[in-house]
Fold this protein.
Amino acid sequence: MKTRLFLLITMSMLSALFGTANAGEGEKVSYPAPVVSGINQDGATVNFADVYKKGPTVVFFYPKADTPGCTKQACSLRDAFADLSKEGVQVLGVSFDKAESQKAFKDKFTLPYDLIADPEGKIVEAFKVKKMLKGLLSLASRSCFLIKDGKVVWQDYSAATDQQAADIKRVLAEVK
């Protein structure tokens, strides 16, 4: 009985702190997109504002390159990249990984978009993505944002893994 009560109280507290949105549900919002820059997998600087100017932009955050959930999320967007590109969508993936790890991840799974190394967490902080600790490592919580005309129009702080592209396609149809 005490265990059940403890679980109910804990779940209530977590729901109050973090909300009850399901993965992929996200929420429509409207605020200026963070203007940041970072280093991609090849060591080149990527200015996010320049990417936003090219069209709708998906910025997704993942905990660690080449781990099961992160691979599903990245490959979901890879598999839908042709369809997303037809809609003019840009894609950027971000994690605390260094550029070398991002390059290995991109090459291993033939990801057609830039992966941004954010070892200091400045991009994670700009997007207000929650950080997790695993041992001594800081990891970004799985999150996804859709930017349109320089504004974040949708955010999902409990982003899906293998359904990430489907979520983006659904939201794109809704915000046209």
